[in-house]
Amino acid sequence: MNRFGEMHCSIAQAVSVVAEPWTPLILRDLFLGLHRFDDLAEDLGISRNLLTRRLEHLVAAGVVEKRPYQERPVRHEYVLTEAGRDIVPALLTLMAWGDRWSTPPGGPPALLVHSCGERFTPVVTCPHCGGEATADTVSAVRGPGAAQGPGTMLLAAHHHRSTPPSPATSPPAAPPRLN
């Protein structure tokens, strides 16, 4: 396990699973329908040894499931588990950021179409008011699992706030930001 997996932080925990080089692209390809090892290796242009290590890590983390599709010789396909499918919105948001801030020449290589049939750009919104969740509209407060340790200095420093402020109270003077 890397140092991120030791931090008491949800982002660090997620990074320890999905942020190794090549891993987001492997997850993207699985989401887009490439499931066989040879197809993944060809599409990504990644070495077979590195792809094997990344897939083994994702299987061990419960993000990808390895299923046999042929008996002689035994061959496997890889599919996203429920946890793997839950990372797709984060990948789509990362894609939208890339489309906005580092678009390849010629424009975005892919466009997204929702099940309603309309093209869209992913936006994170508040489920309560529908407002866009941005660096300017979101703050973080200490949660029930907050603990002092590596990667949690901001939350530990605000130990007196164990619950979010109610709408009737004024917001904290300097809320910690998740960067």
TrEMBL record:
<keyword id="KW-0238">DNA-binding</keyword>
<dbReference type="Pfam" id="PF01638">
    <property type="entry name" value="HxlR"/>
</dbReference>
<dbReference type="GO" id="GO:0003677">
    <property type="term" value="F:DNA binding"/>
</dbReference>
<dbReference type="InterPro" id="IPR036388">
    <property type="entry name" value="WH-like_DNA-bd_sf"/>
</dbReference>
<feature type="compositionally biased region" description="Pro residues">
    <location>
        <begin position="164"/>
        <end position="179"/>
    </location>
</feature>
<dbReference type="InterPro" id="IPR002577">
    <property type="entry name" value="HTH_HxlR"/>
</dbReference>
<keyword id="KW-0805">Transcription regulation</keyword>
<keyword id="KW-0804">Transcription</keyword>
<feature type="domain" description="HTH hxlR-type">
    <location>
        <begin position="9"/>
        <end position="106"/>
    </location>
</feature>
<feature type="region of interest" description="Disordered">
    <location>
        <begin position="157"/>
        <end position="179"/>
    </location>
</feature>
<dbReference type="InterPro" id="IPR011991">
    <property type="entry name" value="ArsR-like_HTH"/>
</dbReference>
<protein>
    <submittedName>
        <fullName>DNA-binding HxlR family transcriptional regulator</fullName>
    </submittedName>
</protein>
<dbReference type="InterPro" id="IPR036390">
    <property type="entry name" value="WH_DNA-bd_sf"/>
</dbReference>
